[in-house]
Amino acid sequence: MKILYFGDVVGRSGRDILIGQLPKIRERLSPDFIVVNGENAAGGFGITEKIAEEFFSAGTDCVVLGNHSFDQKEIMPVLEKDARILRPVNYPKDTPGRGFSALKTRRGKTILVVQVMARLFMDPLDDPFAAVEKLLAGNPLGKKYDAILVDIHGEITSEKMSMGHFCDGRVSMVVGSHTHVPTADAQIFPGGTA
Ligand SMILES: [Fe+2]
Ligand SMILES: [Fe+2]
Protein backbone atom coordinates (compact mmCIF):
# COMPACT_ATOMS: atom_id res chain seq x y z
CA MET A 1 0.00 0.00 0.00
CA LYS A 2 1.30 3.43 -0.90
CA ILE A 3 0.65 6.14 1.70
CA LEU A 4 1.65 9.76 1.23
CA TYR A 5 2.08 12.03 4.23
CA PHE A 6 2.63 15.77 4.03
CA GLY A 7 3.88 17.38 7.24
CA ASP A 8 2.67 20.65 8.53
CA VAL A 9 1.29 22.71 5.67
CA VAL A 10 1.76 26.32 6.75
CA GLY A 11 -0.44 29.20 5.65
CA ARG A 12 -1.45 30.18 2.15
CA SER A 13 1.96 29.54 0.60
CA GLY A 14 1.98 25.99 1.97
CA ARG A 15 -1.58 25.35 0.84
CA ASP A 16 -0.96 26.74 -2.62
CA ILE A 17 2.10 24.63 -3.26
CA LEU A 18 0.48 21.44 -1.95
CA ILE A 19 -2.85 21.88 -3.68
CA GLY A 20 -1.10 22.96 -6.88
CA GLN A 21 1.21 19.95 -6.91
CA LEU A 22 -1.14 17.24 -5.66
CA PRO A 23 -2.69 16.37 -9.04
CA LYS A 24 0.76 15.77 -10.55
CA ILE A 25 1.95 13.85 -7.48
CA ARG A 26 -1.18 11.70 -7.52
CA GLU A 27 -0.73 10.93 -11.21
CA ARG A 28 2.94 10.07 -10.80
CA LEU A 29 2.73 7.97 -7.61
CA SER A 30 -0.87 6.71 -7.63
CA PRO A 31 -1.11 6.65 -3.82
CA ASP A 32 -3.69 4.62 -1.93
CA PHE A 33 -4.08 7.20 0.80
CA ILE A 34 -2.98 10.79 1.42
CA VAL A 35 -2.57 12.38 4.85
CA VAL A 36 -1.92 16.09 5.39
CA ASN A 37 -0.97 17.78 8.64
CA GLY A 38 -3.07 20.93 8.57
CA GLU A 39 -2.53 22.36 12.06
CA ASN A 40 -0.92 25.54 10.67
CA ALA A 41 -2.92 25.81 7.45
CA ALA A 42 -4.89 28.94 8.47
CA GLY A 43 -2.23 31.67 8.57
CA GLY A 44 -0.04 29.44 10.73
CA PHE A 45 -2.71 28.90 13.37
CA GLY A 46 -5.13 26.02 13.14
CA ILE A 47 -7.47 25.21 10.29
CA THR A 48 -10.91 26.30 9.10
CA GLU A 49 -13.65 24.16 7.58
CA LYS A 50 -13.12 25.84 4.20
CA ILE A 51 -9.41 25.04 4.19
CA ALA A 52 -10.05 21.44 5.26
CA GLU A 53 -12.48 21.13 2.35
CA GLU A 54 -9.81 22.46 -0.03
CA PHE A 55 -7.47 19.70 1.13
CA PHE A 56 -10.16 17.07 0.68
CA SER A 57 -11.18 18.33 -2.78
CA ALA A 58 -7.52 18.16 -3.84
CA GLY A 59 -7.48 14.44 -3.00
CA THR A 60 -6.44 14.39 0.64
CA ASP A 61 -8.04 11.50 2.52
CA CYS A 62 -7.24 12.52 6.10
CA VAL A 63 -6.16 15.74 7.83
CA VAL A 64 -4.28 15.51 11.10
CA LEU A 65 -3.72 18.45 13.44
CA GLY A 66 -1.65 18.91 16.63
CA ASN A 67 -1.10 21.47 19.36
CA HIS A 68 -2.71 24.11 17.10
CA SER A 69 -5.88 22.01 16.60
CA PHE A 70 -8.19 24.53 18.22
CA ASP A 71 -6.57 27.84 17.28
CA GLN A 72 -9.57 28.47 15.00
CA LYS A 73 -12.55 27.84 17.25
CA GLU A 74 -14.91 27.31 14.30
CA ILE A 75 -13.27 23.93 13.63
CA MET A 76 -14.63 22.38 16.86
CA PRO A 77 -18.02 21.28 15.49
CA VAL A 78 -16.33 20.10 12.29
CA LEU A 79 -14.04 17.85 14.31
CA GLU A 80 -17.11 16.42 16.02
CA LYS A 81 -18.79 15.43 12.76
CA ASP A 82 -15.98 14.71 10.28
CA ALA A 83 -14.04 11.50 10.98
CA ARG A 84 -11.41 12.49 8.40
CA ILE A 85 -9.96 15.23 10.66
CA LEU A 86 -8.02 14.21 13.75
CA ARG A 87 -6.69 16.02 16.81
CA PRO A 88 -4.28 14.32 19.26
CA VAL A 89 -5.66 11.15 20.86
CA ASN A 90 -4.07 11.85 24.25
CA TYR A 91 -5.91 15.13 24.80
CA PRO A 92 -8.11 15.19 27.92
CA LYS A 93 -11.32 13.18 27.95
CA ASP A 94 -14.27 15.12 26.45
CA THR A 95 -12.05 17.23 24.17
CA PRO A 96 -14.07 17.82 20.96
CA GLY A 97 -13.31 15.56 18.02
CA ARG A 98 -11.32 12.34 17.84
CA GLY A 99 -7.72 11.23 17.83
CA PHE A 100 -8.03 8.15 15.64
CA SER A 101 -10.16 7.01 12.78
CA ALA A 102 -10.59 3.94 10.58
CA LEU A 103 -10.89 5.17 7.00
CA LYS A 104 -11.16 3.57 3.55
CA THR A 105 -8.31 3.81 1.07
CA ARG A 106 -8.82 4.45 -2.64
CA ARG A 107 -8.59 0.71 -3.27
CA GLY A 108 -11.11 -0.23 -0.59
CA LYS A 109 -8.69 -1.23 2.18
CA THR A 110 -9.07 -0.05 5.77
CA ILE A 111 -6.45 2.15 7.37
CA LEU A 112 -6.35 3.22 11.01
CA VAL A 113 -4.90 6.71 11.37
CA VAL A 114 -3.82 7.81 14.84
CA GLN A 115 -2.52 11.17 15.91
CA VAL A 116 -0.74 11.46 19.23
CA MET A 117 1.08 14.31 20.96
CA ALA A 118 4.58 13.96 22.33
CA ARG A 119 5.29 15.56 25.71
CA LEU A 120 8.92 16.64 25.90
CA PHE A 121 8.94 20.48 25.76
CA MET A 122 5.24 20.25 24.89
CA ASP A 123 2.01 20.31 26.88
CA PRO A 124 1.64 17.93 29.86
CA LEU A 125 -0.78 15.39 28.41
CA ASP A 126 -1.51 11.71 28.94
CA ASP A 127 1.29 9.29 28.09
CA PRO A 128 1.47 9.04 24.27
CA PHE A 129 2.92 5.52 24.41
CA ALA A 130 0.10 4.26 26.64
CA ALA A 131 -2.45 5.94 24.37
CA VAL A 132 -1.06 4.21 21.28
CA GLU A 133 -0.69 0.89 23.10
CA LYS A 134 -4.36 1.01 24.02
CA LEU A 135 -5.27 1.27 20.33
CA LEU A 136 -2.82 -1.35 19.11
CA ALA A 137 -3.52 -3.97 21.79
CA GLY A 138 -5.73 -6.64 20.28
CA ASN A 139 -5.44 -5.12 16.81
CA PRO A 140 -2.66 -6.94 14.98
CA LEU A 141 -1.82 -5.33 11.67
CA GLY A 142 -3.56 -7.03 8.77
CA LYS A 143 -6.64 -8.19 10.69
CA LYS A 144 -9.15 -5.41 11.30
CA TYR A 145 -6.86 -2.85 9.67
CA ASP A 146 -4.89 -3.37 6.46
CA ALA A 147 -2.61 -0.49 7.43
CA ILE A 148 -2.00 1.64 10.51
CA LEU A 149 -0.41 5.09 10.49
CA VAL A 150 0.70 6.89 13.64
CA ASP A 151 1.46 10.60 13.46
CA ILE A 152 3.45 11.69 16.50
CA HIS A 153 3.41 15.43 16.96
CA GLY A 154 6.25 16.86 19.01
CA GLU A 155 9.47 18.81 19.40
CA ILE A 156 12.09 16.16 19.89
CA THR A 157 13.23 13.63 17.30
CA SER A 158 14.30 11.14 19.99
CA GLU A 159 10.79 10.95 21.42
CA LYS A 160 9.34 10.57 17.94
CA MET A 161 11.94 7.96 17.03
CA SER A 162 11.07 6.10 20.25
CA MET A 163 7.48 5.90 19.05
CA GLY A 164 8.81 4.37 15.82
CA HIS A 165 10.65 1.66 17.75
CA PHE A 166 7.69 1.19 20.10
CA CYS A 167 5.39 0.56 17.13
CA ASP A 168 7.86 -1.40 15.00
CA GLY A 169 6.22 -4.42 13.44
CA ARG A 170 2.81 -3.38 14.70
CA VAL A 171 2.00 -0.45 12.43
CA SER A 172 2.76 0.40 8.80
CA MET A 173 4.16 3.86 9.31
CA VAL A 174 5.13 6.28 12.05
CA VAL A 175 5.66 9.90 11.03
CA GLY A 176 6.76 12.89 13.05
CA SER A 177 5.22 16.33 12.71
CA HIS A 178 5.18 19.77 14.38
CA THR A 179 8.72 21.09 13.92
CA HIS A 180 8.48 22.18 10.26
CA VAL A 181 12.02 20.95 9.69
CA PRO A 182 12.85 17.91 7.54
CA THR A 183 15.15 15.58 9.45
CA ALA A 184 16.22 13.18 6.67
CA ASP A 185 15.97 10.19 9.00
CA ALA A 186 13.47 8.13 7.02
CA GLN A 187 14.08 4.44 7.48
CA ILE A 188 12.47 1.04 7.75
CA PHE A 189 12.86 -0.55 11.18
CA PRO A 190 13.76 -4.26 11.55
CA GLY A 191 10.12 -5.20 12.16
CA GLY A 192 9.08 -3.58 8.87
CA THR A 193 7.57 -0.33 10.12
CA ALA A 194 8.46 2.74 8.08
FE1 LIG B 1 3.09 22.66 12.96
FE1 LIG C 1 2.49 21.64 16.21
Briefly say what this structure is.
It contains 5 helices and 8 strands, in the order βαβαβαβββαβαβ. A 4-stranded parallel sheet has the order 1-2-3-4, with helices on one face. The model has no long low-confidence stretch (mean pLDDT 97).
Number of helices: 5
Helix and strand pattern = EHEHEHEEEHEHE
Q: What's the number of structural domains? A: 1
**Structural class computed from helices and strand pairing:** alpha/beta
Contiguous low-pLDDT stretches (5 residues minimum) are: none
Radius of gyration: 15 Å
Specify the helix fraction band. Answer: 25-40%
Mean pLDDT, to the nearest integer, reads: 97
Report strand order across the widest sheet.
Answer: 1-2-3-4
Q: Which ions and ligands are bound to the chains?
A: fe (ii) ion
Reading off the top of the CATH hierarchy, the class is best stated as Alpha Beta
Q: Strand fraction band?
A: 15-25%
What would you say the CATH architecture is?
4-Layer Sandwich
Task: Report the span from N to C terminus.
Answer: 12 Å
Largest sheet: 4 strands, parallel
CATH superfamily: Metallo-dependent phosphatases
CATH topology type: Purple Acid Phosphatase, chain A, domain 2
Q: Can you count the beta strands?
A: 8
The backbone outline, from C-alpha atoms, is: globular
